[in-house]
Amino acid sequence: MWWRSRSRVVGIIPARYASSRFQGKPLALILGKPMIQRTWEQARLAKTLDALVVATDDERIRQCCEEFGAEVVMTSEKCPNGTERCNEAVKRLKRKFDIVVNIQGDEPLIDPDIIDGVVMALKASPDAMCSTAVTSLKPQDASDTNRVKCIVDKQGYAIYFSRGLLPFNKKGVANDKFPYLLHLGIQCYDAHFLSMYPLIAPTALQLEEDLEQLKVIENGYKIKVINVDHDAHGVDSPGDIASIESLMRGRNIA
User: Which residue, 102, 100, 150, 91, is CA-closest to 123?
Assistant: First the structure.
């Protein structure tokens, strides 16, 4: 079977300049370095990656990334999401990879151990086409639609993802005793499945929730989930930069 050859791994960081909420986000400076460089430097510490590539459709991002030493692949402006940008980037690479890790470019404090964790989880789960990570959801984030929630079965496979509170209860309020799970943005794909992904028609749940991973589940494919202890610090708006910089100063990160 084709999944038995899951050995070579590439990490891809999709990065686009145009954004309705934060124009030019990958180039936003965080303690003097562009955010895309911060993310790349963290991802480069992962032990399971055979290659690390930035995939972009913008010449400014390409030039910036090449200046700090990153490998860059130019992709189409028409890519509808990060997953399809990763797929296009893999096709343009001249090397063959078995696993593709979609690393969010707006996570400048991404833990490299999480990258290694999702890779190892996919390698150990031949019945899964993808793997991802979750962590504990903070109570104050229960109603935040930018914080995607996840539920998993007893074997560690995803049942559903939602922007709403998941699971929901009869009282309609967050239960402070329930271990809600926050989905972290990292996605790990079998390369063969990733090549199929753009050919699968969008699904009703995917479109309603605006969550790519629901197309995978709705078509009957499995997503392996690992639970990690991680304080997510994604950058959604310019106002998030100050808090990221404060955290980095506290950790003595230059």
Answer: 100
